[in-house]
Write a structure and sequence with these properties.
The protein is an alpha/beta fold and 622 residues long. The protein has helices at residues 3-26, 43-50, 71-94, 111-119, 158-170, 203-209, 241-252, 266-278, 292-298, 379-384, 387-392, 424-427, 477-489, 508-549, 556-621, and strands spanning 56-62, 99-104, 123-125, 131-140, 143-147, 176-181, 213-216, 230-234, 257-260, 300-301, 306-309, 314-317, 320-328, 346-349, 355-356, 363-369, 375-378, 402-412, 440-448, 460-465, 468-473. It has 4 domains: 1-30; 34-163, Glutaredoxin, CATH 3.40.30.10; 173-418 and 438-506; 511-621. Helix 6 runs parallel beside helix 13 and helix 14 (508-549) runs antiparallel to helix 15 (556-621). The longest helix has 66 residues, at 556-621.
């Protein structure tokens, strides 16, 4: 074949390839190969969009011309903008003509930029003085909802943010959520110290405020507000009898409740340690909480002085296993409970366990569970014992422990004797007519035996990017809490969207190897340390005998004992080094296999295909 012919053939092949690429890219056909279908609208979103009656207008403000940034950051912003725009177009197609999508580029010093700012879309400043816009205004009639700026650290939340904005744009009034808590979830209205900036609400509050009107109820309150649609109780401490009675009546009236108790609050325990170290005389905060009056009436068995440890799902911190710090994955979450079905990584720190007594007529659906190797840990041990020591003392009964569950059925009152008597100072006031007491009623109560999950320090990271504070979830803690609360008292169409694409896939095999090696390491280390302790006692005995005899020069017995002690210390270091070497050997071998598979499968597959193609051509030629 002539060179010119080969050149023409090569050009034609290239042209055909470009034309094929253009044709294929023009076909509205997409394949989502991600594990969680991150780029595909969920059924919940489609259901929500089917309920849209009046047309909704999407004004998407996006800056496409970006200057003054490094190529890496510029490419990241542009790619993320494409991701948001693709999701908007999917909403447009799924709404069947009920969504009008307008793409607007607010260039500097233009009416479009002024409209974006006036609508509440925030531009992020650049070093050259320009701003980047990436926000959305959703309007339906007189209702309007604004997403000021899409957070590129929450790419997996784009669908949920859009669906939630569509739902809220159609909502006439938000339901009212009562909140009783001893945790600082709601920031005080003024700085705690003069000259300090005002505190921020915990992010769980900010997330819920878009779906609920939240009313904070003090523990000292004597009654609940009358118009609550739902009640959340997190780490209840010191609630008054009259307030407890109102809570009882609300549960029996059928209104949903969310209850979180804790046998060992890490937040309050750290405050307790600070009080002991530098603030002597201050009262120690309550590190454990209970809901005993109601748990007894409902048939819930819960011990406020015991946490749960589980070696199979224990967190590893700086090479040490923390058996009471649990990471619950998909296998520990109920697949049938819609709000939790997509959770992938929930961190619960020193949580307790729940169990339904045999005499209870209610049903407790387990939502979060440990493995069958879990064991109870006394609360006092958590303060004084190290992770390895706790790990070796776990004694499992072979049953899974329920950490969170949904309690349903015919509830009975926790006040069978009637309304509690008011204090003497309140009796003088004019009596208020109250409705007749309820003694039974159908109810729904979600209970979780941990409260630290609700705090920012255990659930998110705040980052600063181009002068804007962004939120980076480190687990699914807040997803769990907000999903369940919204499920109980908000829109059920939003459930199933929240967790898409946010999973943090851990190396389960590596973690299992580390935990097993940690067990062996701690056992052998304890054996060596016991031998050293015994040798120290023998040395003390010999030294006492020597001092009693008035000897100045060390005796042969003391010299031999010291030499044995040094030999034991050397043996300890040798055993520790060998165990760590064995640990790394197994992990490195697994890593080498994975790398070899990832790097080699493509050329190996291509070689096999080439060999097969060659044999087929050869057979055809014969």
């Amino acid at each position: 074949m002539k060179i010119a012919t080969k050149t023409h053939a090569t050009v034609l092949v290239l042209i055909n390839f470009l034309l094929l690429h253009y044709v294929v890219s023009s076909i509205p056909l997409r394949f989502d190969l991600t594990a969680e279908n991150t780029f595909t609208l969920s059924d919940s979103t489609k259901t929500l969009l089917e309920k849209v009656e009046d047309p909704i207008r999407f004004d998407f403000y996006r800056t496409e011309t970006i200057e003054g940034l490094s190529p890496q950051i510029k490419m990241h912003i542009l790619n993320f903008g494409d991701r948001v725009e693709q999701m908007l177009r999917q909403f447009d197609r799924a709404a069947d003509g009920k969504i009008v999508l307008n793409g607007i580029e607010p260039k500097p010093d233009t009416p479009e930029e002024e409209n974006a700012i006036a609508a509440g879309v925030h531009g992020q400043g650049l070093p050259n003085g320009d701003s980047i816009f990436l926000g959305l205004v959703i309007s339906q009639g007189d209702s309007e909802h604004v997403i000021p700026f899409f957070d590129w650290n929450k790419e997996g939340f784009i669908e949920y943010d859009l669906a939630k904005a569509v739902f809220e744009a159609q909502q006439l009034a938000k339901p009212k959520l009562g909140l009783i808590t001893s945790l600082p979830l709601k920031a005080p209205p003024y700085p705690t110290m003069p000259g300090q900036p005002a505190q921020e609400d915990q992010y769980v509050i900010s997330s819920l405020e878009s779906s609920f009107n939240i009313e904070l109820i003090e523990a000292s309150a004597t009654e609940l507000p009358k118009d609550l649609d739902m009640l959340a109780i997190i780490h209840p401490i010191g609630l008054s009898e009259s307030l407890l009675f109102d809570i009882d009546q609300l549960a029996l009236s059928g209104k949903p409740m969310f209850v979180a108790v804790d046998p060992s609050s890490l937040f309050f325990r750290s405050q307790q340690q600070q009080n002991q170290m530098g603030m002597m005389g201050q009262p120690n905060p309550n590190t454990s909480s209970d809901f005993q009056r109601f748990f007894s009436a409902w048939g819930i068995e819960y011990t406020a002085s015991e946490a749960v440890g589980d070696p199979n799902i224990a967190m590893i911190q700086q090479g040490s296993v923390q058996p009471a710090w649990l990471t619950l994955g998909k296998e520990n979450v109920s697949e049938d409970f819609l709000p939790a079905s997509d959770l992938n990584s929930v961190w619960l720190l020193e949580a307790g366990s729940l169990k339904l007594s045999e005499s209870s007529e209610l049903t407790l659906e387990p939502i979060l569970q440990t493995t069958d190797e879990a064991s109870a840990i006394p609360g006092m041990m958590l303060q004084f014992a190290q992770g390895g020591t706790l790990l070796n003392q776990l004694e499992s009964d072979g049953e899974k422990k329920t950490i969170a569950g949904l309690l349903q059925g015919e509830f009975t009152t926790a006040f069978p004797q009637g309304t509690p008597q008011a204090p003497a100072e309140e009796e003088a006031t004019e009596p208020v007519e109250k409705p007749e007491q309820l003694y039974t009623g159908q109810g729904n109560v979600f209970i979780i035996a941990d409260t630290d999950w609700s705090l920012d320090q255990f659930s998110i990271q705040r980052q600063n990017f181009l002068g804007m504070t962004t939120i980076q979830p480190i687990n699914d803690n807040l997803t769990m809490g907000t999903n369940i609360i919204e499920f109980l008292g908000g829109s059920k169409d939003l459930i199933g969207i929240r967790s898409k694409g946010t999973e943090n896939r851990g190396f389960d095999r590596v973690q299992a190897i580390e935990i097993e090696a940690q067990k062996q390491y701690q056992i052998k280390l304890q054996e060596v340390e016991d031998r050293i302790s015994q040798m120290n006692q023998e040395i003390q005995t010999i030294v006492s005998q020597q001092q009693g005899a008035g000897m100045i020069v060390a005796s042969p017995e003391l010299s031999d004992a010291l030499q044995k002690l040094q030999e034991n210390q050397a043996a300890l270091r040798t055993e520790r080094r060998l165990i760590r070497r064995e640990l790394r050997k197994d992990i490195d071998a697994l890593k080498w296999k994975l790398v070899s598979l990832n790097v080699g499968y493509a050329p190996i597959g291509l070689a096999l295909f080439g060999l097969l193609f060659y044999r087929m051509r050869k057979q055809k030629a014969l």
